[in-house]
Design goal:
15% helix, 1 helix, mainly beta, Porin
């Protein structure tokens, strides 16, 4: 029996929201939550590049894997228009952030895209956190059909 993608996304999102809300109420603050957005240069084989955008929100669980922080993120992306159309949709990822030096970190992500380009989603990149509340990210994210070079700005509460 195959579960429709939209139902799977609803269940995963509900569980993630419940887990985040439980963690936040236990901590009695919002300091580990963040929101962000940015622009992306999107590429599809045989098509010209397209400029798109994305929005995301997440929760930083802190240092769990050695020196790396573990984060859970959900978001929405829109690739803009290609010759043959575009892609958009919701996604959910687990992210590892490994501090390098000073304000720099290496990022890796894996998760699922539930939109027009549904399936596995992976990425690698870097972040710079020069101020406690603001983080800049540059990532290469690959989905089944679309590869994106993303530039995002995050705000931490």
């Amino acid at each position: 029996m195959k579960i429709p993608t939209k139902h799977l996304f609803t269940v995963v999102s509900a569980l993630l929201i419940y887990a985040l809300a439980s963690t936040a109420s236990a901590q009695d603050d919002l300091e580990n939550f963040y929101v962000g957005g940015g622009l992306s240069n999107n590429m599809v084989s045989g098509e010209s590049d397209s400029v798109g955008w994305q929005l995301q929100g997440g929760y930083d669980f802190g240092t769990i894997l050695g020196d790396a922080n573990v984060l859970a993120e959900v978001g929405y992306m829109d690739t803009g228009s290609f010759n043959g159309g575009g892609a958009s949709g919701l996604w959910a990822n687990g992210v590892a952030s490994l501090p390098l030096t000073g304000h720099w970190s290496l990022l890796g992500r894996v998760g699922l895209d539930f939109g027009d380009d549904d399936g596995l989603m992976v990425g690698i990149g870097g972040s710079y956190r020069g101020m406690p509340d603001l983080e800049t990210r540059v990532e290469l994210v690959s989905r089944d059909n679309v590869d994106s070079l993303q530039f995002n700005l995050l705000y931490r509460f």
